[in-house]
Amino acid sequence: MKKYEIKSLSKINKAEFTNDLISWFEREQRDLPWRKNKDPYKVWVSEIMLQQTRVETVIPYFNRFIEWFPTMEEFAEADEEKILKAWEGLGYYSRVRNLHSAIKEVRENYNGIVPETSEEISKLKGVGPYTAGAILSIAYGKPEPAVDGNVMRVLSRILLIQEDIAKPKTRKIFEEAVRELIDHSNPSFFNQALMELGALICTPGVPACLLCPVREHCVAFREGMQVALPVKTKTKKSRDVQLAAVILTNSKGQFLIHKRPENGLLANLWEFPNFEIHNQLSPKREIFQQQFFDQYGVKPEIGDMITKIDHVFSHLVWNVDTFAGTLEEPIDQLLMEKHNLRWVSKKEIEDYAFPVSHQKMFAAYRSGDGK
């Protein structure tokens, strides 16, 4: 790849820029629980949680996670069922699985101490350039770039970088820019300040330029181009998937739940029985009933629809019609085991980790007649 020349870097007074940025951060930074100290484990957990998730959403999850697993050792020793329950609702569950694997690797190969070199920390599972840079700069004070979407948006405007940020190779341009600008005396605050600026002021769409502490350094503001940046190509259109799900109970008041496969989307999470609907001409409840019978040899009674859920993933959208139903006949035990099915009580179900879509289904069920 041909080296990209950031011409505007030579026009910025780097010392004044970093001073204005860090001074603003010292005054205005949000009071967030992972900023209480520089524990590498807590920094790491927070950064993994914050990927693809808003700060406001993460706060209660982070507090609960640290309450359940206050040390790396306790997290490393935890079983996956409890870990998934702690993460329930955050989505992108591969993040916490990779974190668990990496923490165990730290315990086994690094005496329980998070590595403080880029070469070593980048070898850990799930630790990409951003996460490595965030941990090294925030926890260890290393002048390493931590380039996420916020940082690319801020610097594309400050430095008038018009490269497409949707392309993976473009990240290198911004990493180089951070290496040029970063304050070696306080890399932790510098990186956090760039992220904070992107979250609070230099936001997508129309930024709040009049409130910006580094406005006078911003080339895009001077050129009137801040709204046009960053350049980002649109992602491909997602695919709609039609599903029918049924919350089934038996005569004991137990719920039938199913564990998803070990690999793939929402791996190892629990869900209510559901089937993809390909025939749009027949009622969904009848299609579900037939597919359930074909697979398990018994036919449930299905009532009215209790909710319709549209759940968006990065590449597809689930359109789920959810029904309540009963199953009086027992399913063969071998089939129960083969298909990872389980009957659980209303109290027991609280111990299982479900995807957000199925949490919504159950909430709708409980708010109706089936409390």
Describe this structure in words.
The protein is α+β, with helices and mostly antiparallel strands. The chain has a domain at 239-367: Nucleoside Triphosphate Pyrophosphohydrolase, CATH 3.90.79. Helices cover 42% and strands 13% of the residues. It has 15 helices and seven strands. The chain has helices at residues 14-28, 40-50, 55-68, 72-77, 80-87, 94-109, 118-121, 129-138, 149-158, 170-181, 187-200, 219-223, 284-296, 333-338, 356-367, and strands at residues 239-249, 255-259, 270-271, 274-276, 301-312, 316-326, 341-344. A four-stranded mixed sheet has the order 4-1-6-5. A three-stranded antiparallel sheet has the order 3-2-7. A hairpin with a 3-residue loop joins β5 and β6 (316-326). α2 (40-50) crosses α3 (55-68). It is elongated, with a radius of gyration of 25 Å. The termini are far apart. The mean pLDDT is 94.
The CATH homologous superfamily of the domain at 239-367 is called Nucleoside Triphosphate Pyrophosphohydrolase
Low-pLDDT ranges: none
Give the structural class: alpha+beta
Mean pLDDT: 94
Mind telling me which CATH architecture of the domain at 239-367 this is?
Alpha-Beta Complex
